[in-house]
Amino acid sequence: MPVIELRDGSIELDEDGYLKGFDQWTEEVARALAERDGIDLGEEHMKVIFIIRDFYSKNQISPMLTLVSKESGNSYKELHKLFGKQPGKRAGKIAGLPKSTGCA
Predict the structure, then answer these.
(1) 39: which DSSP letter?
(2) How far is the C-alpha of 51 from the C-alpha of 37, rounded, in Å?
(3) Which 8-state DSSP code applies to residue 26?
(4) Is residue 104 in a domain?
């Protein structure tokens, strides 16, 4: 089982590298998850991540990329630049959301 090491311990991930619980997330956890994917989180990344977390906490579902784009002010192209291939999936993972059962 994958593990991320943090300053005050470690957190076990599921077999696909996702947090086992939404409440395990912290900004330190987000940075560690992003690092595993080769992403150096900056201010724009965190803006997107907080939008995703807020939507999920209210609706218990991942937001569509269209909503994330609109709310963050980032075009699809900019989201791809920030998060790479499959930006919604990768941003959701870093935001601590469970693995999506929708798109593969």
Answers:
(1) -
(2) 20
(3) -
(4) no
Assigned token pair, 71: 């709310």
Place of tokens 């709310």: 71
Quickly tell me which residue has 């218990």 as its tokens.
Answer: 60
The yes-or-no verdict on residue 104 having pLDDT over 80 is no
Predicted confidence (pLDDT) at residue 70 exceeds the cutoff of 60? yes
Which pair of structure tokens corresponds to residue 30? 């987000």
Nearest 5°: CA angle at 41, between 37 and 47?
120
> Which residues are designated catalytic?
103
Range of the domain at 12: 1-99
Q: Name the β-bridge partners of 19.
A: 13
102 has a pLDDT exceeding 80: no
